[in-house]
Structure formats: C-alpha cells, structure tokens
Amino acid sequence: MEYSALQVILVFIVTFIAAIDQFSFLESLYQPIVTGAVIGLILGDLQTGLIVGGTYQLMTIGNMPIGGAQPPNAVVGGIMASVLAITLHLEPNIAVATAIPFSLLGQYGVTLIFTLMSPLMSRADKYADEADPKGIEHINYLSMCLLGLVFGAVVTLFFVGGQAVGQQVVDAIPTWLNAGLSAAGGMMRFVGFAILLKFMMNRDMWGFYFLGFGMALIVSNIPALATPALLILALIGFGIAYWDYQQNTELKGAAQLMDGGEEDGI
Amino acid sequence: MASNETATSSYQDRTQYEDLTPAPDLDQKTLNKMAWRSCFLQASFNYERMQAAGWLYAMLPGLEKIHTNKDDLSLSMRHNLEFFNIHPFLVTFAMGLIASMEQKKVDIPTIRAVRVSLMGPLGGIGDAIFWMTLVPILAGITSNMAINGSIAGPIIFLLIFNIIQFALRFGLMNWSYKMGTQALDSLMEHMSAFTRAASILGVFVVGCLTVTMGGTQINVTIPNGTTEAYVAHTAVVENDKVDDFAIISSDAEGNTTAGMYAADGTTPLATVDADGNPVTAGAVDLGNGMSEVTYMEMVESPVSIDVASILDSILPKFVPLAIVLFLYYLFAKKNFTPMKGIVLVLVIGILGAGPFGLWPSIWG
Question: What pTM does this model have?
Fold first, then answer.
C-alpha cells in the first residue's frame, strides 16, 4: 500500500503528541482507543481503527502503569496495531498480536530515555542556582520534544518500512545492553533516595529509616495488602510522627507532671 | 562544574530563607496556572529524580510570586528539584500544601520533610482511583462501543476521563492550599516539634520506598559440584524378565548404578521422587504374566547455590538497602555529586549485565 507524504507526516505528528501525552498533558490521548480511531481517520479506514483500538485497549486494562511500572508501551503498540490492521488487512486480534514486538521496543525506548535523561538534572540544578525559571521551563519542553521525536521517528520508520523492520530492530538490540540499562534504570532512584537521606538524616533519625524499611517489608509481603501498602505504611508512619509531636508539645507538660507525682509517691 | 559544586555546598548549609516575612496569599490566577502546569509533572521524567524538574516547573508560578528575593528563589528552586515522585493526577494536593509552606517561609528541612512524606500515601490512592477503578471501568465500556464501530467510544472515554482529572487537579489545588495556610498558623507555635515529626515521617517514607520501589535483585546461581541420586523408573515386563532388572549395572566399587537391589542382591534400593514421596524398588506381579518393575538409576545432577534466595533469607530487599546506604555514604561522607552517583550506577548496571556476553547477567 502506498502512502501519501501527508499521511506519513500526520502519523508522525499523532505519535509525537501521543508519546508526550503518555506521561504529561492529558494522559488519555495516548490510549489505544483514541489513537486507533485517529490513525483510522488518517489512513481512511475509521471502522478498522476503532475496532483495533478497542481491542488493544481491552488488552491493556490489565497492564496499567501501576506503581510506576513500565508495561509494554501502549503508544507504539496501539498505533502500530492500527497501522498493521489497515495496511496489511489483518484481523484486529492478529494485528494486536503482531504489534507486540513494537510495543516491547517502545518499552525499551522509554527505559532508555528515562535513563539517559538523568544527567540532565545537573543542568537543572545549575538553572536553579542561577534562579532561572526559564531554564527549568526549557528543560521540560526539551525533554518532551525529545520523547516525542524519538517515538515519532521510530513509529514513522516502522510505518514506512513495515513489519519486518520492527522484528529486525528488536533482534538487533543485544540483550546485555537492554538488561544493563534496565538494571541501571531501576537503581537510579536509589541515587535520589540517598540524596534525600543526606539532607534529612541526623543521628536520631536512622531508627525511623529502618523502621520504615522493616514495616514495608512486612506489609508488602502480604498479598492482600499489596495495593494499599503505601497508604497503610503512611498511616503507621503518621502515627509515630504524631505521637512524637505530641510528646514534644502537649504531652511534655503531662509527662513532667507525672514524674513529679511519682516522686511524691516515693 | 567547579562553580556548580561551590553553589551546591552553600545551598546545603542554608536551612532558612533570608526574607522571612510571609508573602501575600497567591491569587486564584496563579493557583490555576499551577494546576494547569501540573499536567506536565512528568515532562522531564527520569530515573534519578523522577518528577523533580516537572514538579518545580509546576510550582514556579507560585514560587516566583512568593520569593521576590533572588537568593531565596534560587534556594527554593534547588530544594524543590530533589527527588520527587507522586501520583500525577493527585499532585496538586501536594502543590497546594507546599505552596502554603513556602508562602509562610517555613524553614527548608520542614518543607522538604512534608514534601517527602506526601510521596507515600498519594501514590497508592491514585493508583486505586485511576488505574484500578476508573480506567478499567471506563475503558471496558467504551472499548466495546469502539469494537462495535462507534466513534462515540473514544470521545466518551476522553470526556469522562478528563472531566474527572481536571476536577481533581483544580479542586485539590485550591483545597489543600487553603487548608495548608490555615493549618500552618496553628502549627507555627510548635515549629521545631513539627519539623521533627515531619522529618520522622519523611525518613520513614524513604525507608518504605526503598522496599516498595526497590526492585534490584542479584540473581546468580553458583554451581556447587554435583550430587548422585537414584531416580526411579517403572516398566511393565514379562514375569521371566524380572530378574534381569535385579542389578542392571554396577560401578567399579560394586555399587549398583542401575537396578532394583543394592550390591548384596537382596536389599531393595530406595529414593524419594520429585514430590518428596519415598519410592522403593521392587516388582509387582500384575497376574497376567506381566510384572510392573520399579528400578533405580543413578543420576548425577548439578547442585547450585541461588544467591537471590540466600540474600532473601538474610533480609529481603537487602540489595536495594545496601545500595541506598552505600550511595548515602558516598554523598554524605565522600562528597560525591549526584552526577557521579548516576555514572556509577550506570557502570554497575552495564557491568552486571555482562557486556558483550563476557559473563552471564547478574540482574534478576
């Protein structure tokens, strides 16, 4: 199937916007149910786009970004499923399955971008030192553009190059590179934690860090509590903090009174 | 880089704003602008600080109004750029509270502690509202409309999702800002106790996050020699062939390597099967001229030590805890910059994965 230059550009623009929207802006435009319909309109087959988008959307319901996890990427997957269904006349279910390698590629891409974006933060620190709000704004705009461009370029490449290219690219990425980057990506948050601790920690506080660690181990290992784990933990933490606050304010007087009372009794 | 580091150290030493006069209340326009900008919380999401720069971007309209002193604005921007991660749809709740604290010029450790404390509970609530309730129900209904070819599917999905999202964003922003300004007036009396309590909660939450967000695990199996064990086989043979299975083969020392009986020819061999049930060798006459024979074969199988299960038996999430404490040591005692920490983590990650297939990946 031949595409007009306009269609290629429109697919690029839709992907650009959806890529940004998956994390920022409305955080709903990127959902396959929406992109399927839009891609269908662009390629002149709205019905197929709607059906594929709906099918893909149902599949993602169990695959939500809960707790910051990165599921197979719905932007690349949803758009490619519609493209494949319309251009290759695939059945909706087969198109969705065929798009899976592409969605995995999108997942790698997200991991890679989030890892490589980390060094940008020292630049942001510099803007903060200079009290330069414009600099912070530019960093955010720049990051969004990068994300959109990478996704747009990749999807457009697949759109023009076809299904075989997708599989080739997936195969060409060495597993060690992917494993190493995702392991590093998973550890980078520890840098953030350690810096927070550096600012908040003093000698009295270590106990509360380990208390939180221990309580979280317990709560998160009980399957029934896995979802509300952080809320439960926050309640426990709040209880401890509030008790400490009371000790230092209202109860301080009471404690002293009680001490006095005991002395009298002895 | 050198100038950057001097600035870093001066920012660390400062715990109070220079201008401690509370700023006038933020007007509705500024609050709306902040709520709108909160949509871009994750614009520059990355694995080191997560939403930090997006958070600062959203806070800036307020911060610029509050901190007219340039040094104070810089200080405020710096500490609002620290690690931050919260549910994107509920972030304005945190923004309103922190904006009210900035406005009252609360000291920085307190603001930081409250901001960190907020990371815990809102994530779980947001996931429960959006990804586990709203989206599955809404997407489930509208997807079926789309599959039936109705363009109303995607349109209804977008409408309902965004009405709820924006109602939450603007509603929480106003509510928490007002609540924060009122609550702070009474808290101001006991500021040092409040700071301490908020820090306790903050440190506690970082301890929890080390567990709930720490997925790093070392997954290595070390081969530890081999073990020999009998594996039971059964066969149905003619009765006169049963004796052939008594001792099929023996090794140099006379021990049976395959067969029903030990070297003495009378003691039946025994072993345990994969489910842990004991199995004894022997023959059962089936009564039709055939016998069911259970015989043993010596099989050599490799033994390995699973590092992950050993670590888990010492302390689950030991690896995340160790990395956090090690990085804390580097940052607090060795004056590492965050950048050095990131490079270190990147190198460890790639090396651990066995670059170019030089060794097997240790990450699991």
Answer: 0.74
